[in-house]
Protein backbone atom coordinates (compact mmCIF):
# COMPACT_ATOMS: atom_id res chain seq x y z
CA UNK A 1 0.00 0.00 0.00
CA UNK A 2 1.65 3.29 -1.08
CA UNK A 3 2.11 5.97 1.58
CA UNK A 4 1.40 9.56 0.54
CA UNK A 5 1.38 11.70 3.72
CA UNK A 6 0.13 14.79 1.89
CA UNK A 7 -2.81 17.15 1.85
CA UNK A 8 -5.40 16.19 -0.75
CA UNK A 9 -8.56 17.78 -2.11
CA UNK A 10 -11.75 17.18 -0.12
CA UNK A 11 -13.33 14.68 -2.52
CA UNK A 12 -10.25 12.46 -2.97
CA UNK A 13 -11.32 9.99 -0.23
CA UNK A 14 -14.71 9.54 -1.98
CA UNK A 15 -12.97 8.97 -5.30
CA UNK A 16 -10.64 6.39 -3.76
CA UNK A 17 -13.56 4.69 -2.01
CA UNK A 18 -15.52 4.49 -5.28
CA UNK A 19 -12.57 2.72 -6.86
CA UNK A 20 -12.90 -0.01 -4.23
CA UNK A 21 -9.55 0.69 -2.58
CA UNK A 22 -8.93 0.98 1.14
CA UNK A 23 -7.23 4.07 2.57
CA UNK A 24 -6.60 5.96 5.77
CA UNK A 25 -6.87 9.69 6.45
CA UNK A 26 -6.85 12.09 9.35
CA UNK A 27 -8.08 15.64 9.90
CA UNK A 28 -5.23 18.08 10.44
CA UNK A 29 -5.06 20.65 13.20
CA UNK A 30 -4.66 24.28 12.11
CA UNK A 31 -0.87 24.29 12.53
CA UNK A 32 -0.37 21.18 10.41
CA UNK A 33 -3.00 22.33 7.91
CA UNK A 34 -1.12 25.53 7.10
CA UNK A 35 2.19 23.62 6.98
CA UNK A 36 0.81 21.10 4.47
CA UNK A 37 -0.96 23.81 2.44
CA UNK A 38 2.40 25.55 2.12
CA UNK A 39 4.04 22.28 1.06
CA UNK A 40 1.24 21.70 -1.44
CA UNK A 41 1.81 25.17 -2.91
CA UNK A 42 5.44 24.26 -3.65
CA UNK A 43 4.35 20.94 -5.18
CA UNK A 44 1.83 22.65 -7.45
CA UNK A 45 4.28 25.41 -8.39
CA UNK A 46 6.84 22.75 -9.36
CA UNK A 47 4.19 21.04 -11.49
CA UNK A 48 3.34 24.38 -13.13
CA UNK A 49 7.02 25.01 -13.89
CA UNK A 50 7.29 21.53 -15.43
CA UNK A 51 4.15 21.90 -17.57
CA UNK A 52 4.85 21.36 -21.27
CA UNK A 53 1.62 22.72 -22.74
CA UNK A 54 -0.59 25.74 -22.15
CA UNK A 55 -3.39 23.38 -21.13
CA UNK A 56 -1.21 21.69 -18.50
CA UNK A 57 0.02 25.09 -17.28
CA UNK A 58 -3.55 26.36 -16.82
CA UNK A 59 -4.46 23.15 -14.98
CA UNK A 60 -1.61 23.69 -12.53
CA UNK A 61 -2.46 27.39 -12.16
CA UNK A 62 -5.98 26.31 -11.18
CA UNK A 63 -4.48 24.08 -8.49
CA UNK A 64 -2.37 26.98 -7.23
CA UNK A 65 -5.43 29.22 -7.18
CA UNK A 66 -7.34 26.65 -5.11
CA UNK A 67 -4.50 26.69 -2.59
CA UNK A 68 -4.53 30.50 -2.53
CA UNK A 69 -8.28 30.41 -1.83
CA UNK A 70 -7.66 28.05 1.11
CA UNK A 71 -4.74 30.09 2.44
CA UNK A 72 -6.75 33.31 2.25
CA UNK A 73 -9.62 31.68 4.13
CA UNK A 74 -7.23 30.31 6.77
CA UNK A 75 -5.86 33.82 7.32
CA UNK A 76 -9.37 35.19 7.84
CA UNK A 77 -9.63 36.72 4.40
CA UNK A 78 -11.08 35.88 1.01
CA UNK A 79 -9.90 35.67 -2.57
CA UNK A 80 -11.78 38.92 -3.19
CA UNK A 81 -9.78 40.67 -0.49
CA UNK A 82 -6.54 39.20 -1.85
CA UNK A 83 -7.54 40.51 -5.28
CA UNK A 84 -8.15 44.00 -3.85
CA UNK A 85 -4.67 43.97 -2.28
CA UNK A 86 -3.20 42.75 -5.58
CA UNK A 87 -4.95 45.57 -7.46
CA UNK A 88 -3.65 48.21 -5.01
CA UNK A 89 -0.11 46.87 -5.33
CA UNK A 90 -0.40 46.80 -9.12
CA UNK A 91 -1.64 50.39 -9.12
CA UNK A 92 1.20 51.53 -6.87
CA UNK A 93 4.08 49.37 -8.16
CA UNK A 94 2.80 47.93 -11.44
CA UNK A 95 2.36 44.35 -12.54
CA UNK A 96 4.66 42.13 -14.56
CA UNK A 97 3.14 42.71 -17.99
CA UNK A 98 6.05 44.69 -19.41
CA UNK A 99 8.54 41.85 -18.77
CA UNK A 100 11.10 44.17 -17.12
CA UNK A 101 14.20 42.36 -15.84
CA UNK A 102 16.26 44.45 -13.36
CA UNK A 103 19.98 43.85 -13.73
CA UNK A 104 21.52 46.24 -11.23
CA UNK A 105 21.05 49.50 -9.37
CA UNK A 106 23.90 51.88 -8.68
CA UNK A 107 24.50 52.68 -4.99
From TrEMBL:
Keywords in alphabetical order: Hydrolase
UniProt key word Protein biosynthesis: no
InterPro entries per record: MSMEG_1276-like_NTP-PPase_dom (IPR038735), PRib-ATP_PPHydrolase-like (IPR021130)
Protein name: Nucleoside triphosphate pyrophosphohydrolase
GO molecular-function term, one example from the UniProt record: hydrolase activity
Organism from which the protein derives: Bacillus infantis
Cited Pfam families: PRA-PH
Keyword Nucleotidyltransferase among UniProt keywords: no
Amino acid sequence: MPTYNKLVRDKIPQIIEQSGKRFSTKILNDQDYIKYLQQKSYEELDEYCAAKTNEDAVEELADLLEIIHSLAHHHGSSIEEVEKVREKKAEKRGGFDEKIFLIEVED
